[in-house]
Amino acid sequence: MKKTDKIAIFDIDGTIFRKNLHFELINELAWMKVFPVDVRNTLTDLYTGWLEHEGTYEDYRKALVDLYAKHIRGCKRDDVLKASKLVIPFHARRTYIFAERLIKKLKSEGYHMLIISGSPSEIVEEYNAQYLGFDYAFGSVYEVDNHGRYTGEATFEPSKDKGRLVKQYMYEHSLSFDGSYGIGDTESDISFLKLVEHPIAFNPNQNLRAAAVDGGWRVVVEKKDVIYEMTPECFTDPKI
Q: DSSP letters of 159-218?
């Protein structure tokens, strides 16, 4: 398929992947005893807290970032690469139907496919290499010293300003926003959804939903095996 100059930009966690790559990587590192075993208890507490409405999904995501940063210091990069290779085959097919269909459609039309995720670059790149096959994948980068061990410092966190990263990438690859697509699920995706011609808020949290309503964006919700397209007039508080 000949590539066009059009671009499609995807988030991963909660958009393509039904769970969270960062969570699964931390969990695997604890099983491997690279991280302390009791980190798994912390993961369970964080996930349970989110399920029980103790904070937002964004709070939960940031807590995972903090947990990873706390324990990655002194760990070998080879161990993280090994954990990523173990995680992806087990979880790769746990994807949303809508995302799968949209990816297939846009690939068939020659779109340049780009991923931007806040999860660590090692597992994001492994997921892309083993399963997605996008043109490029950005994840968070953690500094490694001369001995191949992490310092604990994040040197690149794309989720802090995905829109700026997209603009730079577009310029460097001579791509066009004409006909462009973007899809994400939380407020960290708003900055790039504002740029594209066809923004899609997928299973949005409250902040993204508000931005989608203000911007007149498509809102798509997938529950079980049913996909719904929402319109602004649907967004009213239901009567109990």
A: GG-HHHHHHHHHHHHT-EEEEEEEEESSGGGHHHHTTSSEEEEES--HHHHHHHHHHT-E
Residue boundaries of the structural domains of the chain: 6-234
Per-residue tokens: 201 = 């808020």
Long-range Cβ contact pairs of 30-33 (< 8 A, separation 24 or more): 32/79, 32/82, 32/83
With both helix axes pointing from N to C terminus, report the angle between 39-51 and 21-31 in degrees, rounded to the nearest 10. 150
For residue 1, count other CB atoms closer than 10 A to its CB: 8
Nearest to 118 by CA among 203, 211, 204, 25: 25
What are the DSSP calls for 132-171, one per residue? I--SEEEEEEEEE-TTSBEEEEEEE-GGG-HHHHHHHHHH
Burial 125-151 (b: 16+ CB within 10 A, else e): bbbbeebbebeebbbbebebeeeebbe
Specify whether the CB–CB gap between 180 and 200 falls below 8 A. no
Q: With H, G, I as helix, E, B as strand and everything else as coil, classify residue 63.
A: helix
Over residues 46-102, the pLDDT tens digits come to 999 988 988 888 888 889 999 999 999 999 999 999 999 999 999 888 999 999 999
Name residue 222's amino acid: E
User: What is the CATH code of the structural domain delimited by 6-234?
Assistant: 3.40.50.1000
In the block, tokens 């002194």 appear at 74
* Total-model pTM: 0.92
- Taking the mean position of all CA atoms in its chain, how far away is CA 229? 21
